[in-house]
Amino acid sequence: MNAWRTVYGYWKIVRELTNMLKSKPEKITTRVAKLESAKRELERLVDKLRKDNLRSVAQSIAVERWHDLNIIRQKVDIDDRDAMRLLVDILRETKRTVGVIVSIIDKRPFFLTFVSDDLTSKIKAGELAKIIGKLADGGGGGKSHLGEAGGKSVNKVDEILNRFTELVEELWNQKPNYS
């Protein structure tokens, strides 16, 4: 009797799948494989569109000069940390660039600091993130090319962005003053 229930249960599943997929039972696996392939193609298209959109956002971001460095300090309206990281990857492609982007996620500031590869021996994004995290009443850290910081104080975001070039200068000259 148990075997019959098991077989009947599987038969019901196959019948449901054939109705859902509008396919014959013997072609279910082929139909699922085609759907998986179409899904992967759509995911690639969404990724491409997301990157294209982020490239246009990157082009709209103001770049300031400090000596021979490109300085970026920008608020962005992106509530997805992965999308922010993709944007930073695009911004880091420009040589001699140091920057910070910030977005308010879940009512808290989230900062990404970044340094182009050609400058990581001179200035570390993780160090910038540590400083910014403290200034935002939170914490931060990271690697030489990318740092993350979070804080509790949304009201300090503008002050931090306004001080960013000064923070870069202090680290560049190796005479930190984090107060």
Automatic annotation (TrEMBL):
The keyword Cytoplasm does not apply. GO terms for molecular function: alanine-tRNA ligase activity; ATP binding; tRNA binding. Keywords: Aminoacyl-tRNA synthetase, ATP-binding, Ligase, Nucleotide-binding, Protein biosynthesis, RNA-binding, tRNA-binding. Residues 74-170 form the DHHA1 domain. It comes from the Bacteria. The keyword Manganese does not apply. GO terms for biological process: translation. Its EC number is 6.1.1.7. Belongs to the class-II aminoacyl-tRNA synthetase family. This is Alanine--tRNA ligase. It comes from candidate division WOR-3 bacterium 4484_18.
